[in-house]
Amino acid sequence: MARTRSSSSSDSSDSSRRTRKRRSHSHSSLSSTSSVHSENVESPEALENVGIAPAPPEDLPVEMTREKVNLTEAEITSFRGFAKGSAPDPRLRETWFNTLPTINDVAAAAPRLDKKLKGPNYKISMTESQAIQHHEGLFAALNLLMLSNASNIRGTDDEVKFRERAMRIISVQIQDLTVLRRLSALDSLGVPSGEVSGVRRKTLDLKPEKHPNVDGEQIHQLFSTEMVEDIKAYLKQKEKNKTARTSLAKI
């Protein structure tokens, strides 16, 4: 009989533990769901990042294999001439670029970095992996532009399609360089990237401003107004903390 009561007591205890476990799991699930829901609804960061990053191109399938296209001998010679790189005379480089036609809009030029946001050791650096990604992006765009000029493509719908894809790739490269320059500027100022909202995800604002050195010209900034406010707020607080520590040290 004692054995039976012991078994009954054990079963009852196991049942109670299972019940508590189910309740605990249920409560944990509800709390987790509530937390996620709250984050999605109330998180300023979640709302802030809505619509920031451009959507991926619609014409890219989920799975695809790279197609290799053969060019004529003359076309491949021309392509290789561009692919090996160009080294114009440094004295004529800027002059040559300035003769190229540009869109009459502030978006046609590279963004500027406010001199006030340049730290004493401002230097742009990248890893080998990042450098390879930039190289690959440039070669991908060059491939598409060359294909759009190929004799069997020019004048067809594919010519426009290849050029549009090349522009998309260049747009991705622009964003990559934007992020690289932003991170380098923050590093020179001693500002952690996490203190500035949207450093990696926000695209350029393209808000025109008066050029500081050229009359009648306009520029746009590397950092948005909101980012600049974040940077200044962090630096101000950093200086305030430094002053407070110095005062305590003197006591």
TrEMBL record:
<feature type="region of interest" description="Disordered">
    <location>
        <begin position="1"/>
        <end position="61"/>
    </location>
</feature>
<feature type="compositionally biased region" description="Low complexity">
    <location>
        <begin position="1"/>
        <end position="13"/>
    </location>
</feature>
<feature type="compositionally biased region" description="Low complexity">
    <location>
        <begin position="27"/>
        <end position="38"/>
    </location>
</feature>
<protein>
    <submittedName>
        <fullName>Uncharacterized protein</fullName>
    </submittedName>
</protein>
